[in-house]
Each structure stands twice: as C-alpha cells, then as structure tokens.
Amino acid sequence: MLQKVIVFTPKDPPPATLREALTACGCEMLLAPSEARLLESLDRFSPDCTVILSSPVMDPDAERVVQRIRSIDHSCPLVIMTSGISAEAAICAMRAGATDMLDRDSPREKIVATLKSLIGRRGACFGHQGHNCRELIEGHRLAGGSVPMREIKDQISRIAQADVSVLITGETGTGKELVAQLIHRNSRRSGRLFVAINCAAVPDTLLESELFGHERGAFTGAEVSREGKLQHASGGTLFLDEIGDMSLVAQAKILRAVESRVVQRLGSNQDTPVQVRLLAATNQDLESLAKEKKFREDLYFRLNVVRLALPPLRERLEDIPELVEHTLRELQQRHHGPLRRIDDDVVRRMQAYHWPGNVRELRNVLESMTVLSSSRSVGLSDLPSHMKHVVRSSAPQYGDERSRIIGALTSADWNRNRAAEILSCSRMTLYRKMVKYSIPTE
Asked: What is the pLDDT averaged over residues 325-347?
C-alpha cells in the first residue's frame, strides 16, 4: 500500500523536488490547499507524514496550523518546508510541534533521506492501526483507555527516549508526578535515581540548600555537610514539582546549574559536576508568568523543550470505570483487606460528576468508601458525607447530549470543525464524544 503524505499548500504549489522525492519514496501526495482541507485529510487518512509549505519565516499562521495538527495527531511526523531557515525559526517550529525543517531549495536526495527517516520511524513504532507497539514499562499505573490517555502513553513512550527537558502541565490531581516517573522508568536513565522535590512545599529559605546542598556551618543548624538534590540525582532524573512556585533567585541558580552542569554547595567555592535530566511540572501558566516577570523567561524556554499536557478527568469520564477498578485493586493491596466492588449505579453517577480534584479526588473518595464500608459491595450509602449530595444528584444525561451532538453535526452537514464551533468545544472533544455515544465517525 502506498504511504500517504499530506502537503499543505496554502499559497504556492509544492516544488518539483518535493514531488520527485515523494515519488522516489513510494508515497502518495495528498494536496491540502486550505487549513480546513488539511485537518479533514488528517482525520480521514491518518497520513504517514505531513509537510507544511510555509512563508520565509515561521509566522503565527504557520505556528497555529502546527499546533492544530498536533491537537489531532500527536505522533505524525511533521516537516516545515520554508526558505531561509534561521535558528530562531527552527526553535519556534520545534516548540510548536514540528519534527523537522527543510529548505525549499534542498536537493532531492536530502528530501528523500529526511522523508524516509521520518516515515520509517513512524512505521517502526506504529502498527497499521496507528497504535504504539512499544510496550510502556509500568504503563498499567496510568489507568485509562480513552483517546486522550492513549495519546499520553504514546507521548511518554517517545519522550522517554529523547534525553531532553520536559514540562508537564495539568490541573492539580491529574497525575503529573506519575507521568514524570514513567518518563524516567522508560528512559536510558532508568537504572539511576529519580529524585523529586516539591518546590511549593519547601520554604524559600531552604530551597537553595535542598537543591544544591551545604557545607557544615554554612548556616545556623548546618551541623553536617549534605549533598543537594541536583548532586544526588546526577546521572538520573530530577523532577521539580510545582516549578511555578520557585523564587526568582532559586530559578536563576538552577538555570545556571543546568546550563553549566556544576553546582556549589552553600558555604563552598568548589564546583561539583552534575549531569541530570530535568523534568518539571506545574498547574500554572508559566508563559503568562514569564510575561509578567514572575518567572524567568530563559528558564521557561529551557524547561519547555517538550511539553506534555495532561487532560482533566472531566474530559475523559469514560475512563472512570477502569480507574475505579484499578484504584480498588491498589487499595486492597495497600490495606490488605478484601477486594471491594463499587455498585454500577455509583460508577455511572461518578461519570456525571465534574471532579474538580481530578484523579486524586476520585482516589480519595474510593479510599474513604472502602475503609468505612463493612460490605464487599459498596453503594451510595457508603459515600463520604460531603459527596453524597453531589453524586446522588449527578444523573447522566447521555441522551440529551447525544441528541445535541447529532443535531450540530446535521446542521453542519457533518463537518466536524463547524459542528465543534456550534457546540463550543474543541474538535478532539467532539470526536471523543462521538466515540462515547457510538455516533459514526466515518
């Protein structure tokens, strides 16, 4: 079967060298002259590669297109083909989600080599249905088979292999530290230490000592010398949780340590070499904080080499039955008690609740129910008192929502972009709901 490559041509036709290279690679070229056609083709064909013909610089329109492509397909190789590639444009493209960049004047041989490498990499990692065939070590810890969670697991598998800094974003309770642990566990550094520090839990006066260590007598109470987290994690992974709460002074020092790969303990003038992979997590908007001068812009760019955004539980409610079962097994092993079962009616009502505390809130509710219940079967009466009213009043309205979705699709002549606009939701959210309610997606 011919491999499909979508070429986005908003202004100019593809250069002859690209056409020749695609033919030499045995690829079928699918032209997409508009953004709407591009997104429709991505959804319909699941291409082996996408090429964007951009203006001489990485303008905001091209950056937006890249980001929209990534919202639909996180794994498809994405090549920006432009003129006069600069370091700034390359950095901008990679941050937006591009895989590689090519000059429009590149010889055919270089284009062929680039396309074969990217398409081959996709073919090695994915089967004919697009599922990642590389088993994620300890992936069972991240419960959920929804589309968002399959994408997250796929991203973890690929990110783990690249020894780059990662910024993990998401609301409180979405599992950012677990994701960081899985990235480490599946990386080449898995045989070394994973060291975590919660920047919000350590007082600012002690954070520097925690990160860099101190010599005896460096401050009151420093009775013995102590290595810091950076030195302790050398060769492994350092995870900075709630990085947005770190002071500007500490940010400057950790940036210097990461860039120079040396640290100085408090009270010492001696440089100690360190070599760590840096993972960071936050529930704050670091980009906005950087613009407000509340977070160092240079550290933000250093951390934001790869970003992994975790979805809130309310956007993957179809995962709740699996999450409940997975959590109950964990709790049974932890408390050495009988394996509990949650009534189906309770699970259905849980799927209608919005879970502001995300997976952490769900786990806390389940733990309370299993500890307090004297029966193997747990029902509504076993809910914590603060949850009884909200869950009892939470009744799934599947029929109404399904009708609204079908109505919007019908009004939009089954164009998902327009239907998503009518429903005031993203295209991916619409797709997930269509799958959830068994609405045909083809």
From this structure: 84
Which tokens is 374 given?
Answer: 């004297």
Q: What one-letter code names the amino acid at 38?
A: L
What does the domain layout of the chain look like in residue ranges? 3-125, 139-309, 313-392, 398-436
- Residue 190 CA to residue 181 CA, distance in Å, equals 9
* Cα distance between residue 287 and residue 313, in whole Å: 24
**pLDDT per residue as tens digits for the range 225-282:** 888 888 898 889 999 999 999 889 889 888 888 888 888 888 888 888 888 899 999 9
Sheet strands side by side (includes 100-103): 27-32, 3-8, 49-53, 78-82, 100-103
Distance from C-alpha of 299 to C-alpha of 422, rounded to nearest angstrom:
39
Domains 139-309 and 313-392 are alike in CATH topology: no
**Mean pLDDT value across residues 328-342:** 83
- Region 398-436: CATH code: 1.10.10
Topology adopted by domain 313-392: Helicase, Ruva Protein; domain 3 (1.10.8)
139-309: CATH number: 3.40.50.300
Sheet holding 306-309, edge to edge: 194-198, 237-241, 277-282, 166-169, 306-309
Q: For residue 310, what pLDDT band results from cuts at 50, 70 and 90?
A: very high
Secondary-structure class of domain 3-125 per CATH: alpha beta
